[in-house]
Amino acid sequence: MNTRHLSDCVQTCMSCSLTCTACAAACLKEEHVEMMRECIQRCLDCADICQLCARMEQKQSPFMQEICELCAKACDYCAEECSQHQHEHCQQCAEACRRCAEECRKMAA
Amino acid sequence: MNTRHLSDCVQTCMSCSLTCTACAAACLKEEHVEMMRECIQRCLDCADICQLCARMEQKQSPFMQEICELCAKACDYCAEECSQHQHEHCQQCAEACRRCAEECRKMAA
Amino acid sequence: MNTRHLSDCVQTCMSCSLTCTACAAACLKEEHVEMMRECIQRCLDCADICQLCARMEQKQSPFMQEICELCAKACDYCAEECSQHQHEHCQQCAEACRRCAEECRKMAA
Amino acid sequence: MNTRHLSDCVQTCMSCSLTCTACAAACLKEEHVEMMRECIQRCLDCADICQLCARMEQKQSPFMQEICELCAKACDYCAEECSQHQHEHCQQCAEACRRCAEECRKMAA
Q: What InterPro entries does the entry give (chains A, B, C, D) (predicted)?
C-alpha cells in the first residue's frame, strides 16, 4: 500500500463524514423536511461509517479494507439520494460522497 | 467513587444513547416530521454525548466527571423536548434521559 | 427479522464494546504491557466496530447486516488474542466477544 | 460567531483527533511501551473528545461551546505528556494538540 494514497483517503473520509453531518443538519431545517427524510437517514449513516473508516485507516487496522468497501457502498447510497435534491448542501454532499467512494474503492482493492 | 454506581451509570448512559438513536429514527418517520425537527436534533446530540460518556466512564478517564456533567445537561435538554410529544418513543426517551441525567449528576458530584 | 433477536443483539454489541474498552484500559496497566500490545489493538478496534454495529442495528440501517458480519469478524479476532491471556479481564473479554460474534452472525444471516 | 473561524476549528479538531489516533497506535509499537502507557491513554481520550467536538461544531450544536472547552483541556493534557517524549509522532501530536487547544478556546470564548 502507498502511504500517500492512504493519507489522502483518511482526509477524504474525514471530510466526507463532516459534509454528511452538515447536510443532515441542513436538511432538517429545510422547508419541506418531509421530502428530506431519506436524505437525512442516509447522511447520518454515511457520517458514522466514514468517521470509523478514517480512524481505522489512520491506525492501519486489519479491518481497514473491509471498512473501506463498506464505506464506499454507504457513500454511493448517500450520493444517490443527495444528488436528487437541488439544495446546495445536498449537491456538495453528493460530490463529497462520490469522491470518497472512489478513494475507498482504490484503498480496498 | 463507588464501583457499583459507576457500572450502573455506564449502563444507563449506553442505554440512553441507544434510546435517543431509536427516537431520532422514529421521529424522522412520523407523519408530522416538521414538528419533530427539534426533537431529532436533540436526540442525535444526546446519543453522541451519552455514547462518549459511557466509554469515558468505562475507562475511568480523568475527563469522566466533566463529561458526566455535560451529559446530564444534554439529557435534560433532550427530555425537555421529548416530553412534549405524545409518541411512545418520545415518552420513553424522555424517561431514559431523565434517569440518565440523574445518574450522571451523582457521578459528577 | 425477529424484533426480540434484534434487540438482544444491540445489547450484546453495546456490552461487548464496553467490555473491550475496559480490557484495553486494563491491559495498558498490566506489568508486562509489552506482551499486551496485540491485545490492546484488537480490543480498541473491536470496541469501535461493536459500538457502530449497535447503533446501526438500533436504527435498522440498510447497512446493518454488513456491519454485523464485519463485527463478527472483529469479535472473533479479538477473542482469539484475549483468550490466550490469563488476566481475568482478558478471559471475560474473550467470552463477551465470542457471544457477540455468535449473535451478529445470526443477525447477518 | 465567525463562520470562517468555526470551519477552521472543525478542521483542526478533526485533524487533531486523527493525529492522536496515529500517535496512540505508534506508541503501542515503541520498544519501551511501558514508558508510553500514560501517553497512549491521553491520546485515546483526546482522539474521542476531538472527534465529538468536530461533529458538534459542524452541526452548530447548542453544546458546541462546552465541548470546545472540554476539548481544549483534553488537548492540553495530551500535549503535556506527548511533549515529554522524543518520538517524532509524539512531538507532532503535542504540536497538533496545542494548536487545537488554542482554536477551541477561541471558539468557546
A: Csp_YhjQ, YHJQ-like
